[in-house]
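Quick illustration, no need to memorize.
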Amino acid sequence: MYLSLIINCLSALLFGDFNFKPAQAMVFYGECRPTISNRLPDSQPLPVYRKKEGTSDVNLIASSGAVLLVKDNSFLYEKNSAFKQPIASITKLMTVLVFLDHNPGFDSEYVITPSDNIVGGKNNLFTGETIAIRDVWNTALIASDNGATMALVHATGLSEKDFVGEMNSKAKKLGLFDTNFSEPTGLSEKNVSTARDIARLAKEALAHEEIRKTTTIKDYSFKTKEGRDKKIGSTDYLLYSDSGDKIDILGGKTGYTEGAGYCFVGKFANDGKDEIISVVLNSNGKNDRFQETKTLVNWIFDNYTWN
């Protein structure tokens, strides 16, 4: 039956009268559409994950969140996951992705300029200091330093406008259609996204060894060419956690502005199981975002199984 209906529809499209009136066109579409759409579920693969019976829901206090199963891009948990909101320094995941496309070389050097030292957050690098690009990179990601982030942008040779243009272009290529950037650091509340898009962004970013490895460093020390010692610490407090959890953190990024609230996205694995990406946006406090992440990740590993 389905085959004959599809043939009739195709025949009408190929050989029929195309001088349809609008009403006729809608009738024609209505006759063909159910046939095609009804076939779609039959061709879809069965989910690889299963939720255990009797599982109680997790109570996420943060405004929105999501958990992505990296293996097949399934979302195991969602709360207001399509709501667009500021994302603060999670922006930097896209910034470093674009930087990698224009990296002048991690061993090359860069002189910090006045335009790098923007207002907002703690600056660890100062005008006139000569610093290896690798150290600028680490300062931007580990300490979430906004000045170091701008230095990375300027080190590519691109204008800020062109760099942001590439950030938005890459977002579209990755299918992040609810994401938009107006600058590279995350200070602007116009940098917006959703929990679903952030999960996909983190999956792409943390698949790059340079990003994954850097975001798992707790403490980092280096020296400027002039001989000044620098020491920075990670803003990701989960790296310092020693609570006995069996969860392995495989990278992540924090974020905070008044508009975004306290945010965190991280990649996790447990006992050899497949990896997940957890997103918590607009949590109530600096520590709350980490505690809620741990609660959410533990809940997923305790209550889901997958092939």
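Residues 1-44 have pLDDT under 50 and may be disordered.
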